[in-house]
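dude i think i finally got it to work??
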Amino acid sequence: MRDRWDLVAVAGALSFVAMLDMNIVNVALADIAAGLAVPAATAQWAALGYQLPVVALLLPVGRRLDGGGTRPALLSATTGFALCSALAALSPGATWLIAARTGQGACAAVLFVLMPVLVIRAVRPTLRGRAMSVPATLGPLGAMTGPAVGGMLLDHLGWRWVFLVKLPFCLLALAVAWKAMPRDGALPAPDRRALIDALSVAGGLTALLLALTLGAGDAEWFLLAAAAVPPLWWWLRGPGGRPVTDTLRTAGLFGAHGAVLALAAGFAAMHYVVALHLRRDEAVSATATGLTVLAFPLGMALAGPLGGRLADRCGYRRIAVTGAVLTATGLLLLIPLEDHWSPPDVAWRLALAGVGMGLGGGPTQALVMGAAPPGRTATVGSTVQVARGLGFTLGPALATAAWSLAGTGSGAGARAALTLAAMVACLAVPLLARPGRPTATAPEPATDTDSVPT
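look at this
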């Protein structure tokens, strides 16, 4: 088999821009509201209009893409993503903007499902660790750098350029994919059953995400989570959901998915608390806060390539567990900080946590995708992305609740929220370390005979 590192680069670039879009718009919401003459609550849907379809459509997309053509799906989704980005930049009003962002989010859901599938098919099994580390590292880096990039664009070019900055990456990815990807079939046409399943999952996950996202500001929104139960339960018990749960059960992947969710929630809660506490309670400047928080992605970027190489040599799980331990340790070390934080003291702890996330991100993804049964790689790719997306949404909601329950003291509230973030991240260690049932469809390096965790 010929290794196609150009396709791995495509996966990394698209992961970066798709995750960049998760956060880059947040810093522009006030400018969008002023530019389009709409309330701030309406402008917020420029962000939610992208985030909701990304998570809500992952499972239906994964089921439909199993056995379908990867090339036409990637080319169509990338083209749609770029086109909707341009339409968002040209928006004359809020309705146009929200519709463009919703279409962009739907295309991003396809890209998120396809990225690990593309990587796992691009290289030999013995190189999956380092290959999977490319999108696993670049994706979170896109999310972390989004606010900084968005701020610079706002200061110099205006809010419409927030949507245009991704177009060169998309065009380059399209050119490489068009030339390098083999023709591998056509897109499966949706049938009535698939549409019903998609509406059920999308409706349930949208209600859940809205409850978690908006409940932090108004507790009454948490009641919306009850509306998510009937459609998701109906889907899980029906012909659409049973193959998904059977796949995860057969491959022993529930523990790995729980670890992905726990690390994402711990990271998101930590990021929310650190930035808020430094700016609001410690009166640290925006520049100093930004530089402090950037210690995490810096550590992640440095450790990501190393984690992939070590995983191919020493085994996926061993490096994934090591990364989870370092991430949890970095978060635990934030708890004993005094009430008055010093940015350097916070930065080196964030860097340690970032090293852990970078070290274990690619091996964890390779562990999960390597265990996918034949013909089910897209399904497994979608489920792990749902776990990560739910973790990113759940983390700030948990941190806000812990902060509120801790009382009026700012130091006590931040410490309580950080304690919760660290404990959630610690859950990932036993979930990844626990041996699962052997499976013939989970290739591991010869140096690691452990099976995939349950």
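The CA atoms of residues 84 and 100 lie 5 Å apart.
im so relieved honestly
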